[in-house]
Design brief:
Elements (H helix, E strand, L loop, with lengths): L3 E9 L2 E5 L5 E5 L3 H13 L2 E5 L10 E3 L2 E5 L4 H20 L10 H21 E10 L6 H8 L4 E5 L7 H4 L5 H8 L4 E4 L2 H15 L2 E3 L2 E7 L2 E9 L6 H9 L1 H13 L5 E8 L6 H13 L8 E8 L6 H21 L7 E4 L5 H10 L2 E4 L8 H9 L6 E5 L12 E3 L4 H13 L2 H17 L2 H15 L3
Parallel strand pairs: 1-4, 1-7, 4-6, 7-8, 8-9, 9-12, 13-14, 13-16, 14-15, 16-17, 17-18
Antiparallel strand pairs: 2-3, 5-6, 10-11, 11-12
Helix pairs in contact: 2-3, 3-4, 6-7, 9-12, 10-11, 10-14
The structure holds GDP-alpha-D-glucose.
Length: 469
């Protein structure tokens, strides 16, 4: 069944199962970073997408939605627990985000990871046409490039890593460190968010596998006495700017932004945080700094509100359950200490919202707080900038995000430095409209010129160049 010239492989299919109007189940395209990034290209290239439908033990035949052929991969409940919640989200995720939470190493999880990666690779290998292209995404599927190459040496293989790659001293903890490097090196091009990630990866390749590395090119042994070239470099991902520009210009969305401000009591400054509820996002640090500014009287509850959207995430992984408790305790303490009948310090929302509402929130916010302790890119920062057509608003941005490499005119922070974070928040509060405009214009130019189409084109160009070298 070799059909598609271009096959995307990602952990999740870009769809959610929902209940239709008459109670029947149907599929709807789901929002989210990767989906938003690839959807436009998938439609124009008539590609296929291999992924898990998001429910255990679901056996589904391939189907089409919105012009994209979807090829579902079945995972058992045990595989979801071991490959996805276990190895992907409780081993690789914390290790690659600088061990902010302790990674768990379990041999059964690794075995499940290998088995499931092989299944994804088999699905991709049988879907891709002769000399076609397979583009693998992210840390759940690091072995897929190697497995696809073993099955289909004719195809061009790309891999993009959405999260950070750790420094060698940390990476070396991984009991399966050499196997993972060999898995990734099955690709012709291995893309990272930041130059630093690519450097760390190349260091690991040199030190662990002793392959020859020249600049961004690795000589990977392919047959006795022969090598092929794999290239590892940075391709900073971005957003599909069109829907953000369109929504931000819509009168009803602007009216909704005004209504949000009104319902918060029209404070002089609205701060906004939008994150999956994840320990990498620095939500606690942000709340701590903000709470201290209120306690010290540098900010007053009548004048300011922090809206914190923390969308539910990985609720079956222990570290996330603890994090939620910690954040909710901190929020209710600050609110309890400072709220008045008419004003609240933090409007905390453990909910997901439609994109219209997200854009209304971006428009309502004077200051966007992105304080991640480690983040591959952070698309929220770019979304906020895209919506600020009036060139007003301030982005406070952690230097530990991929976005910090590009968004130089943001107010940069080290979120571990609470005093520095407090000063940055005050700098944002006090920034003149003229200075806001100067910075925001430059930020917008950067984001609008380097959108997701520019990102995918540059990755695919690099892929075409390397293959056959
Ligand atoms: C990974 C890497 C990298 C969030 N809540 C709602 C909602 N969102 C949307 C945001 C944004 C996306 O989800 C989150 O993207 P991020 O980049 O911030 O973070 P991760 O989910 O951790 O993504 C990350 C990314 O991959 C892409 O390579 O940048 O570093 O960790 O688009 O707007 N969207 C809606 N409702 C919500 O409640 N509609």
């Amino acid at each position: 069944m070799a059909v598609a010239d271009f096959v995307v492989v990602a952990n999740r299919l870009p769809v959610d199962r929902i209940e239709g109007p008459d109670g029947e189940e149907e599929w709807r395209t789901s929002p989210g970073g990767l989906v938003a990034a690839l959807e436009p290209m998938m439609r124009s290239a008539h590609g296929a997408w291999v992924g898990w439908p998001g429910q255990a033990d679901l056996e589904l035949a391939p189907f089409e939605i919105g012009g994209i052929d979807l090829i579902p991969v079945t995972l058992s409940a045990q595989e979801v627990a071991e490959y996805y919640e276990g190895f992907s989200n409780d081993t690789i995720w914390p290790l690659y985000h600088d061990v902010i939470a302790p990674p768990q190493y379990h041999r059964e999880w690794w075995d499940a990871y290998v088995t499931v990666n092989r299944r994804f690779a088999e699905a991709a290998a049988s879907a891709v046409s002769e000399n076609g292209t397979v583009w693998v995404h992210d840390y759940q599927l690091q072995l897929v490039p190697q497995f696809v190459r073993e099955l289909r040496p004719d195809v061009t293989i790309g891999y993009f890593h959405h999260i950070p790659f750790p420094a060698h001293g940390l990476y070396a903890q991984l009991p399966w460190r050499d196997q993972v490097l060999r898995g990734l090196l099955g690709a012709d091009v291995i893309g990272f968010q930041r130059a630093q990630d690519a450097t760390y990866f190349l260091t690991a390749v040199r030190r662990r596998l002793r392959y020859e590395v020249k600049g961004s090119a690795v000589a990977v042994p392919s047959a006795p006495g022969e090598t092929r070239t794999a290239v590892a470099k940075a391709f900073p991902i971005s957003i599909d700017t069109t829907p953000y520009l369109e929504l931000a210009a819509r009168p009803d969305v602007q009216a909704r932004a005004a209504e949000i401000r009104e319902s918060l009591g029209n404070p002089a400054r609205i701060f906004l945080g939008v994150d999956r509820l994840d320990y990498t996002k620095g939500i606690r640090h942000r709340i701590k700094a903000y709470g201290e500014l209120l306690a010290e009287g540098r900010l007053h509850v009548e004048d300011v509100t922090l809206v914190q959207v923390a969308s539910p995430s990985r609720e079956r992984v222990d570290a996330y359950v603890h994090l939620r408790d910690e954040i909710e305790l901190a929020v209710s303490r600050i609110n309890g200490d400072t709220d008045t009948m008419g004003h609240t310090a933090i409007r905390y929302l453990h909910q997901g919202y439609p994109r219209e509402e997200m854009v209304a929130l971006y428009l309502a916010a004077d200051v966007m707080l992105v304080t991640a302790l480690r983040d591959g890119m952070n698309l929220v920062a770019k979304e906020y900038i895209a919506t600020r057509a009036d060139n007003r608003g301030v982005l406070v941005l952690s230097e530990f995000t991929g976005a910090a490499d590009e968004l130089r005119q943001a107010v940069r922070v080290n979120p571990h430095d609470i005093e520095g974070l407090k000063d940055a928040i005050m700098q944002a509060v006090e920034m003149t409209p003229r200075e806001q405009g100067r910075r925001m214009r430059a930020l917008r130019r950067r984001v609008l010129e380097n959108d997701v189409n520019a990102w995918s084109s540059s990755f695919l160009r690099a892929l075409a160049e390397v293959h056959g070298r």
